[in-house]
């Protein structure tokens, strides 16, 4: 008889693989940036927002906050590293004014996470209390990231075109949300369940919209670049991840 713990671990590993793929989804955008040696009209905000989300989930997953959350910790640690590389690349090719904006936002994020970490260590002396404080913050930021595609979904309905809502990313986002929702239910974790359950639901709506409006979408041979949400692994958790597409 396979135990619930083993099943949960297997689901978490699958979730790590799917989330890793979502973290890599902006690679075409950064290939364009490096090739042209300019950020053009791309925004750094999606990557800064995802970085903050990953940092909060890393704090959530460390043993002194929420024990036995290794799989949440690993994927968001990886996500943090990937997003940091995106931001460094963006910084290198950005104009001076945008670089200052990036530094300002990044500094505010690091200060915020530092305050959160210091607060839970100094003011919350039990795992339950620390989990509650950091978990609520993760739910807020994770939900904001997953809700960000609402503007794209509205555009799809208005234009009757799925040009700006790639099917593959919608499908993988749905599988990611579904996987982490199952993970949270196998050993109940409300803070992982809420953002990922919502993410799975919104991604399912995107897939329905895709099927509804695919036939009315004008055929276009041009290739689109993919960006993460303009907000912000799930988590992965978490992370991860809704997208905005730019020509």
UniProtKB/TrEMBL annotation:
The chain crosses the membrane at residues 6-24, 45-65, 71-93, 100-121, 133-152, 164-186, 192-213. InterPro entries: SWEET, SWEET_rpt. Residues 224-247 are annotated as: Disordered. It comes from the Eukaryota. Keywords: Cell membrane, Membrane, Repeat, Sugar transport, Transmembrane, Transmembrane helix, Transport. One of its GO terms (cellular component) is plasma membrane. Gene3D superfamilies: 1.20.1280.290. GO terms for molecular function: sugar transmembrane transporter activity. Pfam families: MtN3_slv. It is a multi-pass membrane protein. Residues 232-247 have a biased composition (Polar residues). It is found in: Cell membrane. Its main location: membrane. Belongs to the SWEET sugar transporter family. Mediates both low-affinity uptake and efflux of sugar across the plasma membrane. Mediates both low-affinity uptake and efflux of sugar across the membrane. Forms homooligomers and/or heterooligomers. This is Bidirectional sugar transporter SWEET. It comes from Rhynchospora pubera.
